[in-house]
Structures are given as structure tokens and as C-alpha cells.
Amino acid sequence: MPSSAELHRRRSAAVARGVSSMIPSYVGSAGGGTMTDVDGREWIDFAAGIAVTNVGNAAPRVVAAVRDQVERFTHTCFMIAPYEQYVAVCEELAALTPGGFEKRSALFNSGAEAVENAVKIARHATGRQAIVVFDHAYHGRTNLTMALTAKVMPYKQGFGPFAGEIYRVPMSYPLRDGRSGAEAAAYAINQIEKHVGASNVAAVLIEPIQGEGGFVVPAPGFLPALAEWSKRTGAVFVADEIQTGFCRTGAWFASEHEGVEPDLITTAKGIAGGLPLAAVTGRAEIMDAVHPGGLGGTYGGNPIACAAALASIETMRERDLAAAARHIEAVARPRLEALAAKHPQIGEVRGRGAMLALELVVPGGIEPDAITTGNVARAAHGSGLLLLTCGTYGNVIRLLPPLVITDDELDRGLTLLDQAFADSGAPLV
Ligand SMILES: *Cc1c(COP(=O)(O)O)cnc(C)c1O
Q1: What residues flank ligand 1, with Cβ below 6 Å?
Q2: Count of domains observed in the chain
Q3: Does a structural domain hold residue 185?
Q4: Each residue of 396-423: pLDDT tens digit?
Q5: Shared domain check, 80 and 50
Q6: Could you tell me the pTM of the whole model?
């Protein structure tokens, strides 16, 4: 196998610069909660490929299902010749997503594509155009989803013009806005009513816990108030659960923590153990408003990806990975709190289940500290921990381990994180 250094030289001459990688090491193999690079070095995985390999990398059941499917048929296009696997994934989505009402689903390839289709469906069903999104939101990198995403660098810089009829309102961000959920919702709703007009809103689109924007957990009551306002005014309430879904937060979906039943839910990332699959799931009357042929795509709901999804869901159910996510939080949160007690740069420990974050600030206030954040991440990478950052201000360290990570791997990862803080030069209290 060529070395990482050799692969990096080849990459520089062949791969576009705009596609960057967090670490310079190339993957040899990965499984469960670890990754081994081509140079034989082992890494603890606190990234799960950005909340994708919730069931672990190369999960045995997923591998078997993919192998079996790939031998039977690889592709027919569901729009030409349909197959059971697609239908079975939609049945699972109807059963697993919150809300006891009649549901329908449509399958796609990527999260961004699912979000685009949720917007298409909401506009078609309501006959309205305006889409309300939030500060710090991340919904993808395609043209429409760039417009929905908040942060300019690196996602939007130089890529305009962006799609119209997108309106951004303030997010509940307890560390920074000091508002209760009810207050933050009233403030956002007032802006929607005054700047957009309730009768123009096709959809209110929100991540129940924001991902790339900083693992922002809205104050309790914020999501239910927005869902209630949407219901009252005829807007479609869309939960983007692409990062929070599939047991990540200790429930099948994060909306459940506040008893919210979204009209539509977008899913992707954790759905299929690493194979590309995405979905829009929601109320039958909204989903079925679209005429036959109005939704689709060549690869959407590819049979191999569907087989992987069914195997992933079976794994989540059988191993109770929602409980595993809660266990990860029970182990990790006290360790993170202890770290926060040592390092005044840690302004907040937050998150749910296996979606946990540290927001770094200049001690004594809430001014974002992106420098220390970068230093900690680099130190972690240097010592063999795959660790991601996020946040509008680049000052949030996020933990997204595979839900099958062992206690030993989790412990080693948390110890490396502790060490990374020490090595980053972050002063002790
Ligand atoms: C990752 C992500 C997307 C985009 O998904 P892709 O598969 O990268 O297109 C959309 N919304 C949220 C919340 C995400 O985390």
C-alpha cells in the first residue's frame, strides 16, 4: 500500500484544492470505533464520518446486506423498475419517525438533495414560496441549500447568486442570547410575521440541534413554539434531522426530546451505515400533494444503499443504539465537565446523547476562541484522535463517536482529548 505521504503527493496533482481533508493520513481500514491509516497508525474515531457510521464502520450486518444485494442487482432505477428494498426503507421511516399519522417517504442520495426536495414539497403543498431558516443553520452545499445555510466561509464565499425567498431569523442559543425558549420563539416569530408575513411562509426549516453551526441546543420550548406557530398559520414545519437522526441524540430522532412531531423530516447521514442515502418523510397529505413524476432522480433509493439502511436500522434496533448514545453521554459528559473545570476557555459543555460539544471562549466572557479550538483539534490529530470542530465562529469542539464505540475506546479518546487541551497551551485555571 502506498504511504500517506505518497498518496498526498498524488492527490495534490489530481484532486481539486476546494475539496480538503482534516488530516493528512489516508485510510487503510476502519471498524467499530477506530480507524487505521495506510501507515499502520491507529486512530480513535470521534467523528463517525460526520455522524454517518452510527452503527460503526464496516458494520458486519451492513457488510453482509450490501454483499448480498450487490450480487443480486446493483441498479434498475426505482422510477423505471421498482424493488422491495426501497419500499421497506419507507416503511421503516414511517414507523420510526415521530408522529402517529399516515406518512409517505421519498428517497434521495444526499442530505442536501433531501432538503431541496423538502422545500419543493412544502412549496407545492402550500402554494407558498417563503422558506424560514435560522442563524447558524447548515443545510448543505447545493445552490438552494447554500442559500439555506448561514455561514459564508467556506460554504458560500464566491458561489452566488443564491436562491430567493429564503428568510433567516434568530436561533435560540442559550449561551449567547440569554433568552428562554418561549422568549426566543416569540422574537423569531415576530420577525417572521413582520418581515415575511405568515401567509407567505411555505416552511419553517430547522435542525432540532444544529450541527455544523455549533451543536447549538435551543432552549426548551423553542422548537414546540415554532411547530405550534407553523400549524396555526399553515406553514409546513420541517425538521432537518440529517445529523441528529438515527439514535445519535439518545432517541431515534432529536425532535422526540421535546415531543415535537414535524410535518416533514429530512434524514441522511446515519441512515445507511456509510452508504449514500437520504429521505424526506412526512404527512401523507403533504408528501402526496406532488404530482407523479414530480420527485425522483436516477440513483435515489439505490438498492445497495437501501439494503445497507435496512441492516443499519436492524442493528440500531437490536443493539438499542439509542441507549448506547445515552450511555456515551453518561460516560463523556462528566469527563467534559471536569475538563471545563480545568480550562476556563471552555465556556459551555452541551449536547445530547452522543452529540456533545465544548464551546471555547475567551475566559470571563463569551467572545469566541477559535485559535485555541484549532490548537486543541490539531493536538488531538497529532496524537491519534479524529476530532471535529464546528460553529459559526469556529470555536466549538464536537464529539460524534460511532454509537458502537467500546467503553475502552471512548475512555482512550477522552484521555487524548484531555491531553490535547494540555498540549494546546490552554492555560489551566
Ligand atoms: C450534513 C448535513 C446536510 C447535508 O447533507 P449532505 O449529505 O452533505 O448533502 C444537511 N443538513 C444537516 C443538518 C447536515 O448535518
Answers
A1: 110-112, 115, 138-140, 207, 211-212, 240, 242-243, 268-269
A2: 2
A3: yes
A4: 999 999 999 999 999 999 999 999 999 9
A5: no
A6: 0.98
